[in-house]
Design brief:
Radius of gyration: 19 Å
Structural class: alpha/beta
CATH class of the largest domain: Alpha Beta
Oligomer: single chain
Number of helices: 11
Number of domains: 2
């Protein structure tokens, strides 16, 4: 697992619960420790809710090992990256994996919008590159979006679908088009909710409640944006606006202002809502 942040530690957790041995790699020991503490807290909450037995928790924690060097994962069969949503960083992660890997492997990117085909251009074997788009919070959300690049092999697709099912996810398979299926729909809804807030149609909580109770969404679009990160949503919106040329994806001024002011959502303590530890 490349990355111990919000998505990285979440994917590591569900992989460990599924019985996989996981090396969770990040650039600093502090980042790894934060990721491990988040996994411990999630598992503890699962026990309190009666969804997890004590021995399941203990076994899952034993299967996760932190590392600052990718060399410690050189024998892995599957590498999943959850580095920041920048094409050059995704390609760098792929190149680093190719330098250390001792066996054939599948490289899966957790990107929510970037082209799998473009990422795979940096690969020696693009047939083994695929998208595995998980959703936040990973240990709760059941969807796994498997994104098929232009050269991704059928065998690779079936491999990651099987991994997803073992992680208790429901995999869907989509073509490599801008925004795939989920991000394209989700971002469009989130941006429209921001425009409504900007225009004074309703407050953030009321807009979210409309989708939660009126359309049975588990979480409203503005609260979800806070969890994903306003900076992440802005980057995706800018990419989709450029790639698709649709005004639907033009980032509203309120989103740009909030990101510029450092109001990034839960991770900064304030977004469309105020957050505490």
């Amino acid at each position: 697992m490349l990355g111990a942040g919000t998505m990285g530690h979440g994917i590591a957790q569900v992989a460990a619960l599924a019985g996989y041995r996981v090396v969770m790699r990040d650039v600093s020991r502090e980042a790894i420790e934060r990721g491990v503490r988040a996994i411990e807290a999630n598992l503890e909450k699962g026990m309190k809710l009666g969804k997890l037995a004590e021995d399941e928790r203990d076994m899952a924690l034993q299967r996760v090992r932190g590392a600052t060097s990718l060399d410690e994962a050189a024998d892995a069969d599957l590498f999943i990256e959850a580095v920041p949503e920048l094409m050059e960083l995704k390609r760098e992660a792929l190149g680093e994996v190719e330098r250390v890997a001792r066996r054939d492997f599948v490289f899966a990117t957790n990107t929510s919008s970037l082209s799998i085909t473009e990422i795979a251009r940096a690969a020696k074997n693009p047939r083994r590159v695929v998208g595995m788009h998980f959703f936040n919070p990973v240990h709760i959300m059941r969807l796994l979006e498997v994104v098929v690049g232009r050269e991704t092999s059928d065998e690779t697709v079936e491999t990651v679908r099987a991994v997803g099912r073992r992680m208790r996810k429901e995999p869907i398979t989509v073509r490599d088009v801008p925004g795939f299926a989920s991000s394209r729909l989700g971002v469009a809804l989130g941006l429209e909710a921001m425009r409504m807030l900007e225009q004074g149609v309703a407050g953030a909580k009321d807009i979210d409640t409309a989708m939660e109770l009126g359309y049975n969404h588990p979480m409203g679009p503005l609260r979800l944006t806070d969890l994903v990160g306003l900076d992440v949503r802005l980057a995706i919106a800018e990419y989709l606006h450029g790639a698709l040329g649709s005004e639907t994806f033009r980032p509203p001024d309120i989103l740009r202002r909030m990101v510029a002011d450092g109001k990034l959502g839960r991770k900064s303590g304030e977004g469309f809502y105020e957050w505490s530890d």
